[in-house]
Amino acid sequence: MAPDASTTREALLQLTAQHLGPEALTTVEDSRISAVSTDTEPLPLSPVCITQESVPRNLKSDPAAIMVGLESEIPRWEPGSVVKWTAWQMGYDSPADATHAAAHLKQAAEAWNKADVGVNFEFVALAKDANFVLSMVVIREMCLLVSAYFPNRKGLNFLYVYSLAFRPDFRKSLWKVLTHELGHVLGLRHELAMDPNLSVSKAMRYKLARKIHFR
Ligand SMILES: [Zn+2]
């Protein structure tokens, strides 16, 4: 993380509190986040993942495209890094939805921690101590449930959960989609993004990239 990352984060949080009120920074309490059942039905539809940007079809034969997209580097966390996260409580249709999303993210984070990939996730109580915040966005885009980010030097990142994630047939499986998105936070790319025979939307589909994370 860049030396000024925490300064940037605090400035952003201060502005948020000034404009929206200090309650906007209220987080879900760790004690209210309980374990979720991992015994779930398959997802009714394959969610679309927009975290990995699409690459123009004429660049798809370039091996670098799958790894770095159109950027100039492959960002990675230092081995041993701890990616700290928290969850904002406001913005959801109900407090129960905020707790639900946080519980499923915790389940996903624990799955990655158990996999022991050299970088761990840790829940923290306040956004001022976090690398990313789980936050709700009201978008009812077809099949868009969650979006995340790749490793970077920003002071604060967001993992967004969208309206569809709370539909009854997606709700119980949210942790699966979040596990995929945390893979991107760790730096993983879609394994089939270079396939010239796949449309961009299919190349970004969770169902295909899920092979990386769930075998
Ligand atoms: Zn993805």
Automatic annotation (TrEMBL):
<dbReference type="GO" id="GO:0008237">
    <property type="term" value="F:metallopeptidase activity"/>
</dbReference>
<dbReference type="InterPro" id="IPR024653">
    <property type="entry name" value="Peptidase_M10/M27/M57"/>
</dbReference>
<dbReference type="InterPro" id="IPR024079">
    <property type="entry name" value="MetalloPept_cat_dom_sf"/>
</dbReference>
<protein>
    <recommendedName>
        <fullName>Peptidase M10 metallopeptidase domain-containing protein</fullName>
    </recommendedName>
</protein>
<dbReference type="Pfam" id="PF12388">
    <property type="entry name" value="Peptidase_M57"/>
</dbReference>
